Amino acid sequence: MMRVAVVRFPGSNCEPEACRAVERAGGEAFYVWHRDTSLGGADAVILPGGFSYGDYLRSGAIARMSPVMDAIRAHAAMGAPVLGICNGFQILCEAGLLPGALVRNAGLKYLSRPVDVQVERTATPFTSHYEPGEGIRIPVGHGEGRFVGPEALLDQLEAEGRVVLRYAGRAGHDIPGNPNGSARDIAAICSATGNVVGMMPHPERLAESILGSDAGHRVFTSLASHLIAEPQGA
Amino acid sequence: MTWRVHVRILPRAGLLDPQGQAVEHALSALHFPEASNVHVGKAIALDVAAASAADAEARVRTMCDKLLANPVTEDYEIAVDAGGRP
Q1: What's the rounded Cα separation, in Å, for the pair A156 and A162?
Q2: pLDDT digits (tens, 9 = 90+) for A46-81
């Protein structure tokens, strides 16, 4: 059974949802405090959403100094799966585990709404159960979700197929495309090795059909299958 | 010696700055048409113990690169007040 560490920072949110989503995918989830120096033998780690350290200085800028980040860095370097959701994505960028940065939404408003995204890369531990090009509708909740980076970096991400999710409005629907002004409509990216994924949408918030949709569920079943195929020696 | 150091951080030139644009529109609405190219950033002030003003500036530059500014999205300027305190 997969064992997944969900990291709690002061100001994290949706971490119970992340645990439940892991459990519904047949795994065991447990919390790791940001001051811990070990991931407790976890096969995979999730950095949840929220407002770690009140977003002081910049989103994720203080959280990346937390003692647990060294363990996460080592985990990522082994090729083991790391997922940053929303604030977790911001932390991974600040920590240098993912490139680029997430800045204030172009419209300045905090966005709490469903978005339509297209799954561009299925070769990650978190997206293999989606079809390439599949459109899914999942929630976002962020004030600083505009992905930016130098043009050369954006070109590199495209060339290496590292855009995992892209905002994609659908004709005939009332949900617009890119909600926050992200460069190249990017909603999620992965590391060069593919095992570290950061996404602004919240799959854990929409992972069971009683909520109206379970569009995010397969993020977690993908992980379960990945860990059966490639067990981690943590 | 202790030096008073001021760091001024602004969005990287060329990067969309929606806060700056919103403030610029507000200034325009208040009949300040002469205002343009408005940007909103942040200011950080700190005391730094160092042998000289140049040393203090060099240390703060490292602080900026490691924490205070994001090298992907922000530019910064450092000013050290004249006259350190013993």
Answers
A1: 8
A2: 999 999 988 999 999 999 999 999 999 999 999 999
Residue count (chain A): 234
Say how far apart CA A85 and CA A17 lie, in whole Å.
Answer: 12
- Which residue of chain B comes nearest to A104, CA vs CA? B18
Catalytic residue flag (residue A120): no
Is any Cβ of chain B less than 8 angstroms from the Cβ of A107?
Answer: yes
Name the nearest CA neighbour of A115 among A135, A133, A138.
A138
Pick the residue of B10, B72, B76 with the most A CBs within 10 A to test the interface with A by mutation: B72
Q: pTM, whole model, 2 decimals? A: 0.93
**Residues A158-188: pLDDT tens digits?**
999 999 999 997 777 777 789 999 999 999 9
Residue B65 within a domain: yes
Structural domains of chain A in order of their starting residue, each with its CATH number:
3-229 (3.40.50.880)
